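seq as requested:
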Amino acid sequence: MTNATTTRCLRERAGDFIESGLIQRFIIVLIVINAVILGLETSQRAMELAGGLLTTLDRVILAVFVVEILIKLFAQRLAFFRNPWNIFDFLVVTIALIPASGPFAVLRVLRLLRLISMMPKLRMVVGALVAAVPGIFAIGLLLSIIFYVFAIISHGLFHESHPEWFGSLGATLYTLFQVMTLESWSMGISRPVMEEHPWAGMFFVFFILIATFTMLNLFIALIVNAMQSLEEEHCSEEQKMIKEVVHREAEPIVEDAHALRSEVSQLRDEIRALRTLLEDRK
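struct tokens:
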């Protein structure tokens, strides 16, 4: 066996090992444990009681993540970087290697994002968000136009009576954003404005109907539609793979059936010939 063949076998075994269900579940468990450790590190009492142990476990888990990435690189070589999720894992683990001191220490929590790449359902959600980006951008642009129009109108109507909320374009935009989120919009903004302008309530209700209930629901509908499309594509791909497997497995059976039919036909011809011979002898 040549060195190239040996290396290829080692790569295949390493790839099968690191992609096996058992190892993938083990990595998911480590990610969850790492999340608990990072949460405990925010507790002063926990750090006083077991700070050294938590730090050691954190480093061991990070070392396992690094070994996992190295095995994948060995098994897949340049093909590793053709998978966007592999690149995502590589970047997350690389960022986690930044020394855990100073302001960059908080970047360690990014390694928990690996749960997204490890779980197919989460990958589907992220894929739907990415697929919906063009539509989200279009809806966001439309919402920005609506905000700008309502900001100009509300500034012209209320800037004299309530300059703290509508005194400038920036302040007006922020006030409308607060109204859109429904955070204290009635008692905090609408009712005080209605003391000076009794009809202002209808203005804010109309803005909420457009900006909150209509536009934000469009965002949700767009994402849900993208998720359904991805799921349908995934199902169609699975069905295609199943058909290919069934066709591949059934092809020898069909060939055997044809051969058997041919043999049966020949046997019938021989039986007829034998009957004819016997009748002639009689």
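The chain has a mean pLDDT of 81.
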